[in-house]
Write a structure and sequence with these properties.
The chain is α+β, with helices and mostly antiparallel strands. 18% of the residues lie in helices and 31% in strands. This is Prolyl endopeptidase.
């Protein structure tokens, strides 16, 4: 990956090579600090970071700039930087801060040995992102799995929580391009209300409140999860939930994977909210791997499953290092080519590797896209073929879209809604027949 400086209106042949990253497992992006004093070149893998900074005032007519390395890449250490008043603020998991913390260091002393803590969090809290302003820093994270926003005063160095209008919600930080301002913007989405936008006045500590009344009914349950890359299954607004809710379904969002997903399902049954005959699950991509694995891990637990472009043959994919994304995914799934333990672990949960002798009454709806560049269409196809051969009594429905990529069949809303309508019709017909 190469980074060039290009002057608008000139030929590409005149571009200046600024930086080159030889490691194919690393993503490279370019950003500007919030105060527009520096340009940062960020090199990130799934488990490590390396940032170089360039003064935004550099005159490229004089040639390539001297890049300043913030901190050399270390396995397992991630960090991201922004700048304010001769100080770099660093969001990092260094020093064992697995839930991340905010640190700072002088602009002329960037090495990690000079970093000092600004905000640390407790064991049930995480920091996901920070936004630097002229007089304060906004911290976005989670406390006990729920959204959390903190505001840190640059002068007093005091930190106070920002009250949120809804407890169970998804919080989206605003663009907030203005650096010198007393207010910042964010939006909130809940399962029962579409996006609402709020301005928070830092000086007055004031936020306009809203009132939302969540309602659900009992009996059939649809479980959703993703279960990979540390991503939560947020309680976002989904219009497709309402046809199920109106029919008495409960939507259960499980922030877990594999055996924990099974434990959540068993807990729903033990709490007498549902029974295996009324339990369904839905997931896409890595979430499709999770949901598809339920067929062999607990063939007795679910009545119906929907697997959208599911990553159901991870072992074959991770054994091919020349394929796109494979090496980048090693930190998440492991390298089965070199690590026997990783090979055996992936084989234990991979749906395609566990079809022989399977007996289940679970009905499954599977989708694939011929233009999918993340989960190749042959993965779900070969899984369905193996299931139909090894477990012929099991209902496996397959829909292949010739125009579909990984994220859907098109940008048109009616295309997306038609896909969802088919999947919901399948669930309703199998669970509430």
């Amino acid at each position: 990956m190469q980074v060039y400086a290009h002057r608008l209106g000139t030929d590409q042949e005149d571009d200046i090579l600024v930086f080159e990253e030889p490691d194919d497992t690393v993503f490279v992006d370019i950003t500007s600090t919030k105060d527009h004093q520096y340009v940062t070149i960020n090199c990130n893998s799934l488990s490590s970071s390396e940032v170089r900074v360039i003064p935004a005032s550099h005159d490229f007519e004089r040639g390539a700039p001297n890049l300043t390395l913030v901190q050399a890449r270390e396995p397992g250490v991630e960090y991201y930087v922004d700048h304010h008043s001769n100080t770099f603020y660093v969001l990092t998991n260094a020093d064992g801060a697995t839930n991340f913390k905010l640190m700072r260091t002088p602009s002329n002393a960037l090495d990690k040995s000079h970093w000092e803590d600004v905000i640390t969090v407790g064991p049930t809290e995480t920091i996901d992102d920070v936004d630097v302003f002229q007089d304060y820093v906004v911290v976005y994270g989670r406390r006990d799995g729920l959204p959390m926003v903190l505001c840190h005063d640059m002068q007093t160095r005091e930190t106070h929580p920002v009250p949120l209008p809804e407890k169970f919600c998804v919080l989206h930080p605003g663009t907030n391009l203005e650096f010198n301002t007393d207010t910042f913007r964010f939006s909130v989405v809940s399962p029962f209300a579409h996006e609402s936008t709020f301005d928070y006045d830092v000086a007055k500590k004031k936020l306009l409140p809203v009132r939302i009344q969540p309602i659900h009914r009992k009996n059939p349950v649809l479980m959703r999860s993703y279960g990979a890359y540390g991503m939560n299954t947020d309680p976002d607004f989904r219009i497709e939930n309402f046809p199920l809710l109106e029919r008495g379904w409960i939507i259960a969002l499980a922030h877990v994977s594999f055996r924990d997903f099974i434990s959540v399902a068993e807990n729903l049954i033990d709490a007498k909210l549902t029974t295996p005959g009324y339990l369904a699950a839905m997931g896409g991509s890595a979430g499709g791997l999770l949901v598809g694995a339920m067929l062999h891990m607990r063939p007795d637990l679910f009545r119906a499953l929907v697997c959208r472009v599911p990553f159901v043959d991870p072992l074959s994919a991770m054994l091919q290092p020349d394929h796109p994304l494979t090496q980048i995914e090693y930190p998440e799934w492991g390298n089965p080519t070199e690590d026997a333990a990783a090979y055996n672990l992936i084989r234990s949960y991979a749906p395609y590797e566990n079809t022989t002798g399977l007996q289940t009454t679970t009905s499954t709806y599977v989708t694939a896209g011929l233009k999918d560049q993340r989960v190749a269409y042959w993965q779900p196809l070969k899984w369905v073929a193996a299931m139909r051969h090894d477990a012929p009594a099991t209902e496996m429905l397959l829909k292949v879209d010739e125009d579909r990529g990984h994220f859907g069949g098109g940008s048109e809303q009616d295309v997306r809604l038609n896909e969802l309508a088919e999947q919901l019709a399948f669930l309703i017909s199998r669970v509430q027949q």
